[in-house]
Design a protein that fits this description.
104 residues, mainly alpha
Length: 104
Amino acid sequence: MSEITVTHILFVSTALFFTGMYGLFTRRNMITMLMSVELILNSVNINFVAFNKYLYPGKLDGVFFTIFVITIAAAEAAVAIAIIINLYRSHHSIDVEDASELKY
């Protein structure tokens, strides 16, 4: 039975990060872009926990950073969803190109 090494964890984290980057740059739907940003933040969280486990096994610094990032991501998601709902109510679309044509 093989052991899960830091290389395996970093491979999963890298795959999540680039999946998030691909979704962020190729999609026009704001909700899909928000989910892509969440994927990127989760890949960072995996890195924090992995490096904490393998470099400093007795400390919890990486876990505390992860909890902080999760808190910030929840606040970011709440604000972004509120903005998306307001844009949908005023323009009946959540397409990024429709939002760029806003006149104030």
